[in-house]
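Hey,

The postdoc asked me to send both predictions to you directly instead of through the lab channel. I've kept everything plain text so nothing gets mangled by the mail client. Protein one:
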Amino acid sequence: MKKFDYYVFVDYSEDLLGYMIVDYLKIDKIIPKISKFAHYKDLKHKSSYLNSIKKRMEKNSLKKDLLKIKIKGVRETLEIYADLVEFIRKHDNCIIFFSVDDKQYSNFQRLVKNLDGKNNKIVRESKLKKNSREYKLSLIIDTLLNIERLKK
């Protein structure tokens, strides 16, 4: 298994698209803070879950442990991709793991392969092994997107 320097998670929820970047060195600090996270689609009591997780995230200052996070409307997909291209170019000597929502996967894969296909691994979100570190980390952006979506 490769050791990745950064983990990038790109997720989609109805009319929102977002990404989150995690530094490898922060993962061990983040994992205990997200032990109660679950996949939104699997929940019965969605609104109470989101309220509880939102409070937990604020209490644990989870967003401070993330290198970067951005959530925008789907209309602003280009801005999201531009940020990620800039990140890849700045960190061209790093190995980056990407987890991308199935709906965005093919477009994103073509974009990254045009930049640098050697140092990056791109995985569909649906292919992440349940309860793996990567799966648990992907729940953060999934939850943040659902919180943001329900604000509107």
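Protein two:
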Amino acid sequence: MKRCTFFIMALFLLTSGAFAQIEGGDTEVSFMGFFFTRIGEDIEANGAGSVQLSYGKYITPRLLLGVAPTMTFYTGQDEEGEPKLETDFSGSIFFNFNFSTASKFIPYITGQYYQSTFDIPEDGEFTDYSYINVGLGFKNFFNEYAAFNTMVSYGFSLAEDADWANLVVQTGISFIF
């Protein structure tokens, strides 16, 4: 009896969610949040939280190209040394390559050019705040058009003398139109 109940429940779970059917020309909009930190030998402990809205078009059923404006929140200091909440605008252009196109669970690889800020100090270069990120992710569809989306990426800094990188873990919801 226990085996039969387990089999029925497993079959129900595997077939209960509608399968995603991604096609070329589909649009994907994602609302993601992530934690960002720099890693390296001489980097102080740091971190920031961000919210991101991404928009992309499927060129083929497997290849998504898009843009992702981002707002980052972090703690800074005012002139008196008191903590204050600061915001910064950033963004990326990206691609995702899906390993599947018609499944409830879709793993993918991602690559992106990420600009960590558009407010470049006078003594800085644009590339000092630029990264090339590569990563892995998955979408788990809970209905035909919406999925939980999770991704982990590692970013290489384009700064001339960079000895740091970034590690980003994103999670959120994606919608396919």
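Summary for protein two, as requested: The domain at 2-176 is CATH 2.40.160.20 (Porin).

Thanks,
C.
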